[in-house]
Amino acid sequence: MAQKILTEIACKNAKPKDKIYYLNDGGGLRLRIRPDGSRTWIFRYSLNGQDMSHGLGAYPQTSLQTARSKSYQAKSISLEGRNVSAVKRISKIAQINQDATTFGLIAEEWLNHSKTEWSSHHYERNSGLVRRYLKPALGQLPIDSITEQLLLKVLRTAYENGTKESARRARVVASQIFRFAKLTHRASHNPAKELADNPYLRKPPVKHFRALPKNQVGKLITELAKTGQEQKLGIKVQNALLLALYTGLRDYSIRGAKWNEINWKDATWTIPSERMKSRRDHKVPLPTQAIKALTCLKQIGDSESVDFIFKGTGKITPHMSENTLCRALKRLEVDTTLHGLRSLITDVLNENEFHPDAIERQLDHVEGNKVRRAYLRTDFMDKRRIMMQWFADWCDSMAGFKSVNNNVTNLKVA
Question: Are 286 and 392 in contact (CB under 8 A)?
């Protein structure tokens, strides 16, 4: 007796009984109905004289039409004399392995693997390069399918859009990711390494950081002193720039600051080694103006010891993001960078004959002479405290503000 062909209505209306029963669709496909009401598609076939079955999914999640399509595929496998379930299982494992070898997943694995060996700033920079320049175009591709030609196209797009040095750094990061993939036996080549000397990614001319011109210091102070609707920046960014100017700290040292680094009693700020380029703890004196900026920040936000002073608003970093302060300077139309503020400090303090070692220690510069560095252990804190208060007062005087010491031009440190 010929089997009846099923319809969606028949499948939908199938009611449970006391025992398991089946609705046949022909060609080995049938719907199994259990006493608990659950319905499952089953493909029946014979392998080496033995009856076999293979599940095709639950109904109604798997429709009749989808079940028929799956049964046709299963029948083709069975006609080749192969175990349908085993073939599907192997295929699934192969797909999982293929998904695990995408560039994006391996890049994330590399970042997590390397995180403990890097400073927070180094991790932030590398993860940013992956996120901005590599993942959008390469993230979903199997890493071994990425050719030198494709990678060059991705890097050239970034290079020609004006971010030349970032594109070059992204190539270095990509090379490390491919090397990591090779060491973990998920890639057979490293196209980024082959691009190291590519003329299309030539190094741009070196552009040295220009010190903030002294005739713009007054403008910067005036802009940062504005309040209410006149102030172009948010209060956190506003005070972060003031702290950068009054301390000479690098960008990441400021953005990653925590409240427990501030000693209010001694008016000092100690930045831990992991946020310092020199890889050593760095204590800086805080002039009155810097204390005022920190007090303002303390009043508007959390001041628990574990909290970031400049908490982030996004999910990528827990604190203020990279380039925020440089973009803020551009918004104020002040032609400089954070490094330019450090250069200003160097120029002004040297021109006014402050102790050169105190200046270098304030800016966390490492002594080039190894012998002298071994014996130069003092932090010149007393000299630096007077020096940086003088500098903060000098900055304010350039904007016509009354300084703490009244006569800034006559205060020197021997």
Answer: no
